[in-house]
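Lecture notes, part 5. Sequence design as translation. It can be helpful to think of inverse folding as translation between two languages: the language of shapes and the language of residues. The source text, in structure tokens, appears below.
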């Protein structure tokens, strides 16, 4: 589990930025999922509390597992436990502006990032990804196969 996110800590840091003031937990999870897919990695985000009654919008995130701490436990405690239990802490990234969590990460030699710093990294990477041209389809250089040509002629009801 290379990334551990302190859910509401990251969300509140993002919402302080004017352009993301109305950002929601679902939008955050989608952005993180897209980022993790882009860098071909995975992670967990842990939010305080029990979360919304309908969690369907948070289900099925690619590369991101979404957890809620429950009524009697804080997300910070769960994240600390995950840091301690990690078998490869040097490859772990902990994203939180909470000093307690960053200290726990550094003690295990994990990489600790503040929420603001991580969000800037995410934005830069996603902007770079958006500006990257799509790869050319092989048909552009090699043309269609005879079978593909026949199929298209049939679709448009054209004779050769």
């Amino acid at each position: 589990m290379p990334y551990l996110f302190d859910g509401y800590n990251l969300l509140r840091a993002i919402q302080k930025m004017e352009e993301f003031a109305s950002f929601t937990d679902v939008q955050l999870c989608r952005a993180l999922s897209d980022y993790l897919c882009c860098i071909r990695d995975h992670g967990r985000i842990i939010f305080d509390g029990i979360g919304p009654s309908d969690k369907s919008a948070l289900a099925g995130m690619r590369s991101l597992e979404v957890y809620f701490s429950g009524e009697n436990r804080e997300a910070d405690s769960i994240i600390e436990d995950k840091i301690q239990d990690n078998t490869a802490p040097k490859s772990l990234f902990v994203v939180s502006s909470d000093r307690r969590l960053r200290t726990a990460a550094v003690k295990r030699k994990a990489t600790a990032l503040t929420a603001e710093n991580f969000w800037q990294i995410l934005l830069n990477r996603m902007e770079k990804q958006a500006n990257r041209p799509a790869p050319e389809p092989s048909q552009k250089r090699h043309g269609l196969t005879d079978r593909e040509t026949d199929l298209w002629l049939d679709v448009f009801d054209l004779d050769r």
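The translated text above is only one of many valid answers, since several sequences can fold into similar shapes. The mean pLDDT is 92.
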